[in-house]
Amino acid sequence: MAIAQEDDQVLKAEYGKFALTNAKIYTVTKGVIENGTLVINNGIIEAVGANVQIPNDAKVIDVAGKEIYPGMIDGGTTLGLNEIGSIAEAQDYREYGAITPQMEALTAVNPNAVTIPVTRVSGVTTVWTMPQGGVLPGTAAAINLFGYTPDQMYAGQRGIVMNFPSTAGGRRWRRLSEDEIKKRQERAMKEINETWDKAELYAKIENAEDVRNYPEIEALVPVVKGETPIFIEVNAAQDILNAIEWIKGRGYKQVVLTGVAEGWRVADEIAESGYPVIAGPVQAIPTRSSDSFDAAYANPGIMSKAGVKVALRTMDNENARNLPYHAGFAAAYGMGKEEALKAITINAAEILGVGDQIGSIEVGKKANFFVSTGDPFETATKITDLFIDGYKVPMTSRHIRLYDEFLNRATGVDKTKPAIEIKKK
Amino acid sequence: MKTKNILLSLLLVLCTSAFAQEAPKGDVLFKGGTVLTITNGALENTDVLVRDGKISRIGKGLRAPNGVETVDITGKFLMPGIIDAHSHIAGSAINEGTSQVTAEVSMEDVVDPYDVSIYRALAGGVTSIHLMHGSANVIGGQNETMKLRWGQTDPDMLRFEGAPRTIKFALGENPTRGARARGIQPQSRMGIEMMLRNSFSEAQEYEKRWKAYNASKDPKKVAPEYDLRMQTLVDILNGEVLVHCHSYRADEIYMLLKVFSDFNIPRLTFQHANEAYKVAPELAAFGATASVFADWWAYKLEVYYSTAYNAAILHENGVLTSINSDSGELIRHLFHEAAKTQKYGNLSDDEALAMITLNPAKQLGIDNRVGSIEVGKDADIAIFDNHPLSIYAVPQMTFVDGVKYFDINNDKADQRIYIDPESSIEEVTLFEKMDYNHRCMEGAAIFFGQNLINHQH
Question: Where is the signal peptide (chain B) (predicted)?
Answer without folding.
Answer: 1-20
